Amino acid sequence: MKSIYNLIKEEVRRHPIIKNSILATSINWKRSHYIILAELISEELSEKEELRNEKRFELGTSISHITLQRFFESDYDYKTHNDLRFIKTLDKICIFLGFKNLNSFVKSVRGKNSYDESKLGQEFATDIVYNYCKTNFEFFRYFPLLKLELFDKLIFEQSPFRERIKNYSSKLCERNLKLLTKNNRSNFEIFDIDIISEEADKIVLKTQEFWNLVFIIEDSGNDYVINELNTQIYFIKKINNIWKIWDNYNPNSGLLNNVIAKKP
Is 149-262 assigned to CATH 4.10.400.10? Predict the structure, then answer.
């Protein structure tokens, strides 16, 4: 992702709105420049078609100058660039640049062959896993509705991974569980993503993930907490020229069902 992030920075500087502003007169931006940048991006986002209806509430149209400065001045590091708010910031920057979201930007770069194909393939696979984690969190937010279609662009429909998600999530939704997100009670972090092996049509990645999830059953007083740091393995395949997740090894898969079964 590092080269992708650097390209985003370059594209922001090349954007007509930025080139026609006072920001174009300075190479080394300071705090005041990032305040102006945040204002320019926020103003443009308020007019974007992509941020209508539900998307506006999900992402918002404002952007923090502090987050922008952190993004532009720091090298990419999974330990510092993996929280949900930062991903939403990247989505908004890419919308500002004229794309639907970060994933759309990555796909466009692949089409342009701007970077070494092997390296970019690794980055794209990493992005798939990262987007899966983000989508998985959103998937939980819909409970007790079972919204498996959220994974359509990330997981192959006939894959064993998708079937396992369906099986354990169906049981959770039947219990009428809801994810508690108020005051950031539920959250996740990805500490590391490392490529274990790479072939022409398959990439295997290893992650270190922390999931802190609080589920409740409304009007019952019952809550169920998942607070786990573990290592997960993702198997990403290329089928019909499309890269998606095929399988996943998670030692804590189905853990919430076990927690519920043990709790009186």
Answer: no
What are the sequence ranges of the domains in the chain?
A: 2-115, 149-262
Distance CA 251, CA 231 (A): 8
Own/partner long-range contacts of 221-224 (Cβ < 8 Å, ≥24 apart): 222/263, 223/180, 224/177, 224/256, 224/259, 224/260, 224/263
Neighbouring residues of 68: CB distance < 8 A, sequence distance ≥ 6: 34, 37, 38, 41, 89
Rg (C-alpha) for the chain, rounded Å, is 20
Query: What are the E-state strand segments in 32-116?
Result: none
pLDDT 10s digits, 178-231: 998 888 789 998 877 888 888 878 888 888 889 999 998 877 778 888 888 888
| Tokens of residue 225, six digits | 């907490």
Question: Is there a contact between 150 and 137 (Cβ–Cβ < 8 Å)?
Answer: no
Closest to 188 measured CA to CA, from 132, 145, 144, 148: 132
* DSSP code at position 108: H
Cα–Cα distance, 12 to 94 (Å, whole number): 9
The Cα angle at residue 82 between residues 150 and 113, in degrees rounded to 5: 75
Q: Which of 199, 182, 207 is nearest to 236 (CA)?
A: 199
Q: What are phi and psi of 249, to 5 degrees?
A: -110, 115
